Amino acid sequence: MRGGWFVTFLLALTLSAIGASVAAADKRLRVLAWPGYADSDLVKAFEQSTGSRVEVSIVDNDAQLWERVNQNDGGDFDVFAVNTAELQRYLDKGLVAPIDESAIPNIAHQLPRFRDIAEVPGLTRGGRRQAVPYTYAEMGLIYDPGQVDAPPTSIASLWDPRYRGKVLLYNGGSHNFSLAAQILGNRNVFQLQQSQWSDAVNQLIDMRRNAGAYYTQPEESAALFRQKHAAIMFANYGSQQIKLLKSSGIDVGYAIPKEGALAWLDCWVIVGRARDIPLAHQWIDFMLGPAAGQALLERQGLANTTSPSPFVADSDHIIWLEPVENVSRRELLWERIMAGYRASKVLVQ
Q1: How many CB atoms lie within 10 A of CB 267?
Q2: Distance of alpha carbon 55 from alpha carbon 43, whole angstroms
Q3: In the 3-class helix/strand/coil scheme, how is 90-130 assigned residue by residue?
Q4: Which of 34, 59, 275, 281 has the fewest CB atoms inside 10 Å of its own CB, making it the most exposed?
Q5: What is the tens place of the pLDDT at every residue in 34-80?
Q6: Structural domains in the chain?
């Protein structure tokens, strides 16, 4: 009898271990993120703390992100990172689950700028929070102190004739038309009125005359800054570009214009069809912790939402990106401006 009991006991232990193993295997989180948002050491730490397994997929642009999440109505992922402007179309299609703030204690440690969700356009829908801010970058002005006597105080510096041929610009219509709207004094730089398109086009043609080069990626901008001996650069990637330039030994300054700096804000969002919503909340809470926040700053040159940014002060005016009135039109007109069209030709339908 004793031997039979022992065999039964061993069998029970074995079945228990198998059951625990299966449970751990089933506790799986599928994450879709940008490069540097879910580094392997952070993923491993999360897995160990939760007894889960994390599968990370990486995207490089907004179009790819939309394609991956939209496929299978979001059923391929549990949590993903997206900026507040892009988030709106995921909400429109019902691909997002509301956030349970009580399941993310680290929200309480976020800076006031991010805790007051009413101050950040696009975080709520139907009175419920839909996303949790994770990281951001403001699009300030990077300048060479050897050529620019004092930190530039206005976005108008990009048009200053003293820097003709020494201005680096981002090659993208959406943000550049927002810069033009700032110069025109728009309160909402994301919504150009019909009567303003002509003036905006003329502003961008004038800005084009100052351009020494255009870039699309952060690494490209750093190389061009050195090659072109640039005086001022519109920093579409903000602090990431500062880190790249300083790491390569280039002395630069950074300024937030008085009109305000456009800024993207990437958030963690839970997919409506997530298999394990509690685990998704745990992921977001972990990513608001000190280890992930420090990794963003040290490895990517990106600010986090729980500690003060070394690049921007609380008093600096930040303009969070919002959907624009017509993305296609902005990009089409920008292509024509880049091609050297006269103003009268740019606006031809």
Answers
A1: 26
A2: 9
A3: HHHCCCEECCCHHHCHHHHHCCHHHHCHHHCCCCEECCEEC
A4: 275
A5: 999 999 999 999 999 999 999 999 998 898 999 999 999 999 999 99
A6: 2-135+266-309 (3.40.190.10), 141-255+322-346 (3.40.190.10)
